[in-house]
Amino acid sequence: MTNDGNAILREIEVSHPAAKNMIEIARTQDEEVGDGTTSVIILAGEVMTCARPFIERNVHPSIICKAFYKAMVDALDVVKEVAKPLDLENPEEISKAMWSCIGTKFAARWGTMVVDMAVKAVQVVMRGEGKISKLAADLKRYARVEKIAGGLLKDSRVLNGVMVNKDIIHPGMKRSIKNPRILLLDCPLEYKKGESKTDVEMTKASDKAGLLQEEINEVALMCSYIIKWKPDVVCVEKGVSDLAQHFLMKHDISILRRLRKTDNNRIARVSGARIINRPAEI
Which DSSP category does 103 fall into? Predict the structure, then answer.
């Protein structure tokens, strides 16, 4: 259930060009401002209602559009006159402005908690040298909402960093590390089988042992490239074999595997690291 205009309209399938424009207005308002989707639909409907008598009197649409452009200029002047400056250094004024957006939403029932979290989230992704001069509150690029099942709403937090919904792959690895050295990989840490079909003929038991030893040597070589840099955490986008876990855990290295590409890119952006394609390139 929702009273959000854009959420309702985007589920409606229409073929009329004017109706498509109305839905596009709501979508644009939601992307650019994040609030007021229902208001712009009502305003656009009133504008079209005012234009209808002139259309019926055969006034050309271009003349009506010019009149509306003139009205827009006058409306912007009125808006500038009634606008009040907002002190971005004052948390109370920012929260008061936020209430005008949150107050009409379902989240208003939880009081100031949602407002405080929204203000804090914007301040985390804010850019500006010394003072609040430029905002970069692009949700998709700088902020992300991670949902975890269980818990209460009051357990919600704003984290100044990157959160990945993954656990370490071995219970013996460290779970809490301060100021870690991070290594980012987008390749698997396991023995890679050949893409083409290969047949191996084994005549005695030592042949099987030799093949297994080659796999161990290959994984050990990959791990040696990582171990020499002494990282605390290794983030891998693909799989990690049990053997690689064993070698890295002996050197007190924690591993996160099967991370999403976007998560790895976020960690790289925050830490300034470069994602490595092969362990030998480290």
Answer: T
